[in-house]
Amino acid sequence: MRTAVWDGLFRNSALALVCRVVTALSAFCIIPFIISRLGIAGYGVWETLIALGGILFVLQNIISNTLLWWMSQAYGRGDHETLYRSAGIGLGSLGLFFLVTVPAVWLAREPLTLFINVPAAEVPEVARLLAIYVAVYVAGGVNEILAAMVTASQRMGEALVFQTAGRLMNYGCAIGLLLAGHGMGSLVAGSAIGSVVYGALLVRTLRRLYPGIRFRPLFPSRREIAELYRYTGFMFIISVVAAMREQADKIILAAFASPTWVGYYGIALRLASLLLEFNRFFFQPLIAASGALQARGDRDGVCILYRRVVLSVAVCTGMVFIGVMGGYDRIMSFWLGSSAIPQVTEMLLLLVLGNSFAVILAGPQTSICRGIGRAGVETVYVLFRLLFDLVLTVLLVTLIGAMGTVYATAASRIVGTLLFTWLFHHTLQMPVRWVMSAVGVFAVALLLAGVTRGVFSLLAFPVSRGESLLSFSIVVLPACGLYLWALVLSGIVTREEIMSMMSLGHRKG
């Protein structure tokens, strides 16, 4: 069983890596196009609509994460009946949420639009698009439920391939409609079409895996409520806090500054999120794999899984950190066709630093907690971050303006992650030496990022996109090679471990 789960983890992670790269590259391609058609202020309005929709994603996130844990346990036991009921309960819960949320947002659409400082002439159109986008967003929760079932069946790679196909359809339709002059509505229509494609592919796969499955809304029994309420309660706290934390910066910037500042923030966030995107392919498979091992009582297997993933995540994060922090001006020149924007640069440096700590010291750990049913450990972490971030945001926004929310976010991520690292290892009795190795990896990456930045400062700034890409490649690729060599030379990581990370196929152990 352990070998089968590990095979599934590495297979899913390999497919997920490919999908994340394709998705990230696609998003990078479409954003400059959106800005060229809508302007930086229009792009900021769209990012704010995404933020408002993201807050409403809370219940969907609670449902999908709870079901992923429950379904992983059922899959580990070979209990198909529970798998079927889980999907039905998810659909029933989502249906109720849709009936309550969508009419409420429709009634409040204009006050919400005015709150985010949309110009008066654009309020009617943006308000209408907000209501439609929320309806599409909430209905898309069906896909999250179906994807949880595919992932729990140790086939997350397939789910991500389908998600990538849906996003590519989304981007393609949006570009076509923007070219036809349909404005911001093109982005909403693209989201709807991409969601339909994603859902159709998931349904087709589930019918192949489970021929007897029936997609119908159900409601949980008293026994199931008793089994799920504790984990669901933890996920409720985690998801609410995450939604408030991740979307609050955009809303505060829109309300206290303008949608243009949200546009700057969106650009910085896209670059900083590369740290997460190039590691996210580990996290969801790790939840499913650790859940299946826990269901079999294989704690040693969970520990070995954690050791491998935490080191792989640290090494991967370090390489992305060197590229983004060392060559951010070249990336922006190649991406947007302009030199670094001061407002974006300041936000980027803060977000990248905070994300690095969160990805290395909390990413694999939160996946393990969710997989083995110990979400309470993560709950303490997110509650502390919420309180710390709230106090610091109020203080810094009062002192320095809207930009204070970005400083507060970075600080709360770093401090909260350090607390969570101690809490995770103390509570679950995981060896500390593994995470200390990850810290050593990041220290080497920090040093090499500084060297890379110094080299770029000595070179003339490129005058074209082609020169920017060439300059970035000439400096960053050798820096990443030097980084891997330094890790092996220092003994933090062995050559065999580096090779196994590259192949994603090392299962000895």
Task: Tell me the helix content.
Answer: over 70%
The largest sheet, given as strand count, sense and whether it forms a barrel, is: none
Count the DSSP helices. 19
Spans with pLDDT under 50 lasting ≥5 residues? 504-509
Q: Tally of extended strands?
A: 0
Order of helices and strands: HHHHHHHHHHHHHHHHHHH
**How does the overall form come out from the CA principal axes?**
globular
Quote the beta fraction: under 5%
Q: Terminal Cα separation, in Å?
A: 14 Å
Radius of gyration: 22 Å
Structural class: mainly alpha
What is the residue-averaged pLDDT? 81
Describe the structure.
The chain is mostly helical and 509 residues long. 86% of the residues lie in helices and 0% in strands. It contains 19 helices and no strands. The C terminus is likely disordered.
In summary, what is this structure?
The chain has helices at residues 2-56, 58-77, 80-107, 109-115, 123-139, 141-152, 156-179, 185-209, 222-256, 259-272, 274-277, 280-295, 299-336, 342-371, 375-400, 404-428, 432-458, 465-490, 495-503.
